[in-house]
Every structure is written in structure tokens, then in C-alpha cells.
Amino acid sequence: MHPTLKLGFVQQTCGDADPARNLAISFQGIREAAAQGAELVLLPELHLGPYFCQTEDCVRFDLAESIPGPTTGSLAALAQELGVVIVASLFEKRAPGLYHNTAVVLERDGSLIGKYRKMHIPDDPGYYEKFYFTPGDLGFAPIRTSVGKLGVLVCWDQWYPEAARLMALAGADLLLYPTAIGWNPDDPEAERQRQLEAWVTVQRGHAVANGLPVVACNRIGHEADPSGHSPGIQFWGNSFAVGPQGEFLCRADAQESRVLIVDIDRHRSEEVRRIWPFLRDRRIDEYGGLTRRFLD
């Protein structure tokens, strides 16, 4: 492998009610990234449409599709055409009444090489995901591709150091987080900034603690609450990539649709882990409490 991995990620709006138009925006971003030399392209969480989990509505289950299915077929054709690896996020219909929030990985030859089902499922105002998604059952297993072993996680997973650590222990070369997160427009500016910086900080911490690059790809734009009971969500963008010491490699703002391109130094993790040997010094004999809900 080349010592540098060129990675692209697409910060985009996803609020159009027509999935084909949202997918067209994603495809345009993938093509732009590939034209700039990207070998791997990451898309936001559930990029085919508005974030439907603001409300609980059984009709929304009709948005789900099988994997493999129509969208993975379209993504596979594009991956093969451009010779890039694509990581996308879909609403998966696994069986009648059984649905997942699933990230898929398409190899550069168009093959569906792996998937990850979101493990941590939120249930908060505006984020009623437990109504729609069954927790993942594929574990925290990196997906081996032609560009490396991808530790793919999804949105709410990004708050959990256990998920990042298990991906690192299983040999992930980098951590990828397709994301859909934003502000309540009624929140004051100070609260918005606290939330945003907490989101960035915890993921930079995963990079530092595991000596791995981390990439988070978020959507942007305001999406109304279909019920009208809340002001909706203003997705805060700020997609970013950091290196294995948490150093920023690139970062978008809160408003701009754009394709970000970053060069990942494949040797940097090895260099950092030699001087910060956190994996060596773990007291695995004393961590049994981590499997408990709370230590009363």
C-alpha cells in the first residue's frame, strides 16, 4: 500500500423528500472526491433523506430497504466506475418488523465487502431511534478493504470510548463515523457551542486514546419536525478529520456543503503508539467492572 491514504468525505444537505435527489448530491460529492484522488469516500448518516427519527411514525418504515438492495447496487456501480471504496449509511430492512441503522462498505470493484449495524441507539427528544432501529448484532469488527481495515461506527456510537477501543483492539487502521447530529434552534448560542465542542472533543479523545485517525462526516441544514411540536433540528456540520494525537487535519464549518479531502499517513499510528503506548499499559486484569451497568 502507498504510505498515504487519500480520503474524501461529503458534508451535504439531506433534507429533500426525494431520495433520488439526495443520492444525486452524494454521488456528485463522491465523483468530486475521486477526481481529487480520493481512494476512500465517506458519506453522512442516513443520507438518502430527512432525518425521520424526529417523530415516531410507522409509515417511515417504508423508507427502509434490503441490503443488498437498490441503493447498494447504485453505490456499487459507482464504486466500480471510479475505482474507490465507499462507506454509506442506510436504513436496513432485515426482515418484516426488523430494521437496523446500517453502514455499508463497497469495495473499489463494486463488491459489497462489509457492513456495520449501529450498536448504540439513542432515544431522546428529536432522536427517537429506538422506535425504528434494532441494536446491531455484528459486533465491533473492522472491515478489511483494499485501503485498510476500516473501523466503521455510526453517530451515537461516537460518544462511547468502548466502541472505539474495541475497534482499535481488533486492528482498525482508522475510525469512521457517518453522523446526523445538530442543535435545537431554541437553544442559546452558548449551549450550542458547548454541545458542538463536546462532540468534537470526545472523538479527538478516541483518536488520542487509541492512536488512530478519526473521521466524522455530518449533514448540514435545517430539517423541520414533521409533527410541528418542536422547532426541528439545525444540523451542525463541522465534519472533521484528526490524526492519532487528536490533531486537526481538516474541518468544515456549520453551513457549507463541501467535499473534504485529507491525506492519512498510514505510518503515523505506529509512530505515535511507540511514544504513547496506551495499549501496552492497559490493566486488562482490572477492567471487569466495565461489563456492569453501574458499580453500586
TrEMBL record:
Residues 5-266 form the CN hydrolase domain. Keywords: Hydrolase. One of its GO terms (molecular function) is N-carbamoylputrescine amidase activity. Coiled coil: none annotated. This is N-carbamoylputrescine amidase. InterPro entries: Aliph_Amidase/BUP, C-N_Hydrolase, C-N_Hydrolase_sf. PROSITE patterns: CN_HYDROLASE. Gene3D superfamilies: Carbon-nitrogen hydrolase (3.60.110.10). It comes from Methylomagnum ishizawai. It comes from the Bacteria. GO terms for biological process: putrescine biosynthetic process from arginine. It holds the Pfam family CN_hydrolase.
